[in-house]
Amino acid sequence: MRGTTAVVAGAAGIALGVASFGADLASGAWLTVLQFVASTGFAWGCAAFAPAVLARTRAGAMAAGIAVLCLATGGYYGLNLVSGRWRADGLGPVLAAAAYWTVLSVAGGAALGVLAHLVRSARPRPAAVAGGLVCGLLAGAGIDIVVSLLAAGDHGRQRLAEGALQAVLGVVVATWAFGRRPGARDWAGYGLAAVAACVAGASAWGAVESVPVAGF
């Protein structure tokens, strides 16, 4: 990772971490906006995917994805520690939460980096599968929210709308990225992979969110 990709990845990671911290302190309209653009699975996935697409090599794409998510996680928890917000839960649980999300940041950033590189440079069939997996990763959190709320009988409009918007935008971003790739595109393969990945992605997000870690 070098040049423009490194700058974009660094800026995106720092901005995401600061915005996520700000979302915890905001209220009113700012709360709604900041929570969506900085505290959702879709937002974090896009922040990692976008710089990775710019990288010329697989290693560079992985490094970009990891850098964004780790910088954002480190910045978010660092600001919480500096501000003293950790005192409500105790230092140990907050550090455990930070470690948990850092591990997921490394795994998620690496996965999105590899997929971004495949979407951009692989042959049509592998690129279609990679694009479908990106779709599942970006839309999965939103789908999980909608399915979970409906299953629980919770029809609150705002929360349902936020989940649906995440899901729709995840599909749009992944499809746009696949459609912009150089060379031939296997749209049928992409569609099949996207459907399967969205189902799996929603299940995976549900599992991630169910882990009882303390913190923010």
UniProtKB/TrEMBL annotation:
Keywords: Membrane, Transmembrane, Transmembrane helix. It comes from the Bacteria. InterPro entries: DUF6518. The chain crosses the membrane at residues 32-54, 61-79, 91-115, 127-151, 163-180, 187-208. Pfam families: DUF6518. This is Integral membrane protein. It comes from Dactylosporangium salmoneum. The lineage of its organism: Bacteria, Bacillati, Actinomycetota, Actinomycetes, Micromonosporales.
